[in-house]
Every structure is written in structure tokens, then in C-alpha cells.
Amino acid sequence: MAPSWGNAGHIATEQVEPLASLAMLRSAPRRWHAFGGPLDLREPLRQSPWIARYLRACAPARFEAGRVALSALLGHALPAWRRLAGTIEAPELLREDGHWVCWESDASAQRGAESWRGADIATARFSCLSDARRSTLQALLSAPIASGIAFENTAQIADLPMLGQRLADAFARAGGVYHRTRVRSLVREGRRVHAITDDGARFDADQVLVCAGVHSRALMGGVGLHAPLIAERGYHLQWMSHDWPELPPVVFEDRSMILTRFASGLRAAGFVEYSGIDTPPDPRKWARLRRHVEQLGVPVQGEPQAWFGARPTLPDYLPALGRSPRFDNLAYAFGHQHLGLTLAAVTGELLADLCANRPGAVAHAPFDLERFA
């Protein structure tokens, strides 16, 4: 889906704790967009049912159950990516150089490092950013870098369009056939579902997998299944011309922005904007990203390409993965919030096991869509 190709390319195995939490609620005021932060809620009345579910999911017991479930899933994320990269004959696309998090003042560095030390980061590890690495970063920027940490056992996709091409090539080699069309709805006949396209054509299949991001809500609703997704949007700017070396992704935590070098350019990404699927983009987000890049002194040239896309997010910040017990041929995989790319490979493995009635590496019960029934 679009967010996975428009994001930072970061395999974020460290992001174990669901964003549905009391800690996130307490920090929300200082994160608000109007005060310089990344968080924005557009059309709040329209989103009020989702907000009510989110608040219930922030209860400590719900948060802890979600943390345990995500930890199990993320523990398999990077090994699954290694297997997938090997299968599609593209190991070079998976860069296991970790990522860096940095701060521009001693005070924010102390607060940030303390927060990370208290967080559950599963299989990831971090240490203080070495003087050599900090000096390398500082030489590229005009803003001060007071301190930082370097993560291990996280990764990056080096070239997202190339990844898409390699996946398509591998699918074709395995005998797969693409039908490129827009599915308007799903219809039910007894215990089976069928897809109806915009031009009225009907597709019957032994197995139907709904993996349509935020649009999964309407598709699932058409056969009576409730998927309370919201469009949680992110923005990026990407420069083709730049002088940024091949460093791991760098998070500027004071600015809630991540900078990633791809084969196709240098990308600055950020923001958590809750909105409707059809809400127009907010140009202020791109303007702020550009100011951050200019204030940091990032060595870019020319005009950037602007992008925005909707992360499909469920109120408890867990994905929906499984097979519907109400139908014989309906499976689903959506709602991966900020972890779509991170969990892509392990999601593929889990759904393949489910559809083939094989035991999976991770219990899928916590991710069953029936939790919203």
C-alpha cells in the first residue's frame, strides 16, 4: 500500500509499545501540531467513534496485552525480511545498519535517552552514539547535535521501488498472474465472498485476501465485518539532488522527523495526522518539514517532491491478521499503522500459514478482527 512506499523505509523492530497508551495521552498536548509537534486531529467530530475506541484501548491492561502481542510479532520481523530478501534474490535491498536517534540540546538528550532506556524495544539494542559518528553527523549540519544513540538489530530498505519490482518479478516467476483493476465491493453468497470490480465484473476465488489499507474498512463492511480503521496520515519531502552520505536513517527526535537516504533520493518524513480518507492534504505539513531541513542545514539542492499517504490504523494500534470464521474463503491483513513495511514479510508468512492451515510462528488470536465485532 501507498504508506509503505512513502514512509521512511525503516524496519522498526524497536517500536514494540502500542501508541494506544496512557503515556501517549499524557504527552499529546506537547506533541500538538499547533505548538510545533507532529500530532494533528482534523475533523474530530467525524473521528469521534474511533477516538472513543482508542481511549478504551489505552487502559493499562489493554496496553500490556497489545505490547506482548506486538513484541511477539516484531521478534520475527527481521528474520522474515532476511528470508524474503533471499527468496526474491535481492539481499542488497535489506540494509542492517540500524538507525540513529539524535537530539539538539543536552536537556532533550537526557529526557530522550531516559525514555528509550525505559521502553520495551524487544530484539533491538542501542548504545551511545560514538564521538566519531556524532562528528560525522555534525559536519553535515549547521544545527548542533548534542548527543545521540545508535540502534542495532533494526534495518532499512535501500530502494522501495526496486523492492516492489523484485517482488513482482518473483511473483511472476512463481506462476502468479496480475489482474490490475479496482475492486468496488465484496459480496457474500452463503459462506463465500466474491469481489465486484468497478466495471461490474465478478471475481471468484478459492481464497480472498483483503489487504487494502484504509479502504479495507469499506470492503469488510460490505460483508458485515466491522473494521474501525482511520486514515492516520504521514507526509514526506524527497530531494533527488543532495550531498548526504550513505548513513543509516537518522531520527531528529526534537523535530519528530526522520531522514533516510534511498537510491532514489534523500527523504524527510514525519507527522501523525488523523483524518478522513478523502480529506485534502495540509500544505503546512510540507512547509514545516522544509523548515526543519533548512534549520538543520541538511545539504539538499533543488525542489523536493512532496507526498502524503494514509497509514491504516485501528484503535488499539494492533494489525488485523486472520481468517474470518464467518466465511470459508476470506482472509485479511490490514491496520499495520506505522509498522506496515516493518511487518510486511512476517505478515506474508503468517497469512500463508493461515490460508494453508499450517501452524504459524506467532499466535494470531490477538490480531483477530472479531475483537471489534
Characterize the structure shown.
With 373 residues, this protein is of the alpha+beta class. The chain is 32% helix and 25% strand. It contains eleven helices and 20 strands. Strands 2, 4, 5, 6, 12, 14, 15, 16 and 18 form a nine-stranded mixed beta sheet that branches. Strands 1-7-3 form a three-stranded antiparallel beta sheet, with helices on one face. Helix 5 crosses helix 11.
Write the layout of secondary structure elements.
Elements: H1 2-6, E1 10-11, H2 22-31, E2 39-41, H3 48-57, H4 60-74, H5 77-87, E3 94-95, E4 99-103, H6 106-117, E5 125-128, H7 131-140, E6 147-152, E7 155-157, H8 160-173, E8 183-189, E9 192-197, E10 202-203, E11 208-210, H9 216-221, E12 230-239, E13 241-242, E14 250-252, E15 257-262, E16 265-275, H10 283-296, E17 300-301, E18 305-313, E19 320-323, E20 330-334, H11 344-355
Helix pairs in contact: 5-11
